[in-house]
Structures are given as structure tokens and as C-alpha cells.
Amino acid sequence: MFISTWLDYVGVTLGLWRYYNKLVPLMPDYIPWDFALMPVTIMFFLQIKAKANLLIKAIIFASMTAFLAEPLFLKLGYTKYPGWNPIFSFPGFLIIYIIAHLLANSKATKPLR
Questions:
Q1: What is the pLDDT of residue 112?
Q2: 19, 78 in Cβ contact below 8 A?
Q3: Which of 31, 39, 107, 112 is buried most, with the most CB atoms less than 10 Å from its CB?
């Protein structure tokens, strides 16, 4: 959540992309997406086939997010990319998923015995 929110803040501030869906009036447009859509999608991927290869799941997640979801939101008018191409998002989504996977599978999150 925090990584994607920070990256969205930087991208919007630099004018690389814009959001056009004001879900909550006193909040930046990207907050609901970063606090709901991204974490839920990652949690879903972490739960499905939990023992599958990390890199394969990360590539699938990053591909679906960068090449399916971003163009869909662009087409629906929720976002605009004046200085960005969705292919540039792929490495960021890959890294975000890998970090989430490592945090979710760290010793600190293992159940107590």
C-alpha cells in the first residue's frame, strides 16, 4: 500500500499520469485504488497457489496489472498518461509483488506454535 501510494504521489506530482475519479472528496484520487485495489489483488495472488514459484506469480501479476488493468482504466477514463507508458509500470509491479511476497512469508508472519 505504502509503496504504491508513494509511487502514485510521485507520478502525479511529476505529471506522468493523472487520475479522474474522485471517490472521496477530501482525498487524492489515487488513495482508494492504492489502499483497496492493489492490496486486495496482491493478497489474492498470495493466497492462490501459495507454494508456486515466486517469479512466475510476480510476472503474471505485473503483466496483468500493467498490460490489462492499466489500459482498461485508461480506456474507461479513470486515468490519463501524458508522460507515461504502461510498459514502464511492469518492473514496479514486479518489485511490489516480490516485496509483498517476502513480507507475507517472512518468519515474523508465521503462526505461533
A1: 44
A2: yes
A3: 31
